[in-house]
Amino acid sequence: MRIEVKKIATLTGHSDSVYALDKGIDEHLIFSGSGDKIIAQWNLKTFQDEKFVASYPTVLYSICHIPEKQLLLAGTSDGNVHILDLEKKEEIKILKNHTSQVFNIRYSIKTNCIYTAGGDGNFAICSLDTFALIKIEKLCNEKVRDLDFNYKTSEIAVASGDCNIRIFDLKTLLKKKAFVGHQLSSNVVRFSPDGKFLLTGGRDGHLNIWQVGHYEKIKSIPAHDWAIYDIAYSPNSNLFATASRDKTLKIWDSKTFQLLKVINKEKYDGHLYSVNKLIWSTYNNYLISAGDDRTIIIWEINLNMIS
Asked: In terms of C-beta density within 10 A (0-12 exposed, 13-18 middle, 19 or more buried), how is residue 222 classed?
């Protein structure tokens, strides 16, 4: 397989590091959240800011768009989750379940819940209907960084700064398993779309592949020179990308876990500093990356089979 990478556009406008990305209210739109305390919406057709802006009192670390409910959730450095009604264009609720950064917000229509990971070591679950707190659990004294769902096995994986990965039952919320994911902080967890593998990235720069079920480590790849912050699968699941503090993003074969391409500043005019967040959009198959250099870069990734 041969990968062709083309830089399509650089979106500028944020005045601080961009920490958060999520899909927008249409396929060709995305949301971004930054240290400048602003959420912007961008158009992948025009590469322009859509003039939609929500402003917050503190730094934004996570955003979660819930299209089914027309809600936009923003996790801030003070531990709050601000809930914005996109139809009414007004804030309808602030969840105060954490005391420091909200690093990740996810939701599930199947369970009708919102899940948040906090810098205070807490993992919280709220009702998507009433926003009432259902459960909060102190997992460790370090930061809880990321979470992901596996609907095939009805599980949630949670990554945290104490190096551990914890697996919870999606229905009962009971802990099923805990294991050391990385030598340093476990930063990101991502189930493969077929539900068979769990990919994890750590501050040790390693990409680890775990077999779902027993969670035996089947592969450990020294993927980056520094911490891995995000992992995103392509819409057709053939590829996945990793983003790192080492200023690169890398493209991998999702079947063989072979490295196919390194996207850096020197060869592709990539990011100047840490790459913090990724989205692989269904619109034009664009891979979108955001970083500490205050930019959002749109990449076209083409996969050519060599006969």
From this structure: exposed
Q: Are 293 and 275 a contacting pair, CB within 8 Å?
A: no
Q: Are 216 and 189 in contact (CB under 8 A)?
A: no
In tens, the pLDDT along 101-160 reads 999 999 999 999 999 999 999 999 999 999 999 999 999 999 999 999 999 999 999 999
**218: amino acid identity, one letter:** I
Degrees, nearest 5: CA angle 86-90-93:
100
What does the pLDDT read at residue 52? Answer: 67
Distance CA 78, CA 60 (A): 9
SS3 268: helix
Concatenating the DSSP letter of every residue in 98-124 gives -SS-EEEEEEETTTTEEEEEETTSEEE
Q: Structure pTM?
A: 0.97
Do you know the residue count of the chain?
307
**Nearest Cα to 161, choosing from 135, 181, 137, 190?**
181
CA dist 102 and 76 (Å) reads 6
Which mean pLDDT values do the consecutive 10-residue runs of the chain (307 residues) have? 92 97 95 96 93 88 97 98 95 98 97 98 98 97 98 98 97 96 96 98 98 97 98 97 98 96 97 98 97 98 75
Q: Residue 303 has what pLDDT?
A: 82
Predicted local confidence at residue 304, as pLDDT:
78
Residues 69, 186: Cα–Cα separation, whole Å: 31
Q: Which residues contact 130 (CB under 8 A, 6 or more apart)?
A: none
Contacts of 214 (CB under 8 A, 6+ apart): none
**Residue 140: DSSP 8-state:** -
CA atoms of 40 and 37, how far apart (whole Å): 10
* Sign (positive or negative) of CA dihedral 123, 126, 131, 132: negative
